[in-house]
Amino acid sequence: MRNPASTIAATAIRPYETADHAECLAVWLSASRTGHPFLSEADLAEQKPLVADLYLPSAENWVAMGTDGRLLGFIGLLDTGTHAHIGGLFVDPRAHGRGVGRALVEHAAALKGVLTVEVYESNGAVRFYERCGFRPTGRRERDDQGRALPLLTLFRDAPL
């Protein structure tokens, strides 16, 4: 059980700035190591330039900041024309279970309404998204690199 006095909460969610790039990459790598233990260091090294040079620049990114000014996590949104797709949600593992991810999801929902996300089936984040009101709507057997790592598509209606 966590000590309530040690609770970390995002004090602010703000738009991503270019100056956040290195911190976001560090959070991505740390969170990916924790949440995707089935990916090797070589897999992560292969993905890092894609995150740095393609995914971060092409998404509408929002960052969660802690009371100490530290970047705790970020969410990247992609506009599909009918809804927003969460291209990535990464929270510093030291802040897991403290409401940072939920705050980012709720911020995205308030901005965009309907949300979708695709997540590795074996990732514990599936339960997190279900607790945030997402429900499964699809599944594919292989990830974007062709690995036999099933992915679930999850959907959440717009808030009332």
Can you describe this structure?
The protein is of the alpha+beta class and 160 residues long. It has a single domain (11-156), classed as 3-Layer(aba) Sandwich (Aminopeptidase), CATH 3.40.630.30. Helices cover 33% and strands 28% of the residues. The chain is built from four helices and seven strands. It has helices at 21-35, 41-58, 100-112, 125-131; strands spanning 12-15, 60-65, 71-79, 84-91, 115-120, 135-140, 151-156. It has a seven-stranded mixed sheet, sandwiched between helices. Helix 1 (21-35) crosses helix 2. The longest helix has 18 residues, at 41-58. The protein is globular. 28% of the residues are buried. Mean pLDDT is 91; it is low at 1-7.
Summarize the model shown.
With 160 residues, the protein is α+β, with helices and mostly antiparallel strands.
Task: Write a concise keyword list for the protein shown above.
Aminopeptidase, globular, 7 strands, 33% helix, 160 residues, alpha+beta
Overall tally of domains: 1
DSSP summary: helix tally: 4
Strand order of the largest sheet: 1-2-3-4-5-7-6
* CATH hierarchy: architecture: 3-Layer(aba) Sandwich
CATH level-four homologous superfamily name: Gcn5-related N-acetyltransferase (GNAT)
* Sheet having the most strands: 7 strands, mixed
Question: What is the fold's blueprint, element by element?
Answer:
Blueprint: E1 12-15, H1 21-35, H2 41-58, E2 60-65, E3 71-79, E4 84-91, H3 100-112, E5 115-120, H4 125-131, E6 135-140, E7 151-156
Parallel strand pairs: 4-5
Antiparallel strand pairs: 1-2, 2-3, 3-4, 5-7, 6-7
Helix pairs in contact: 1-2
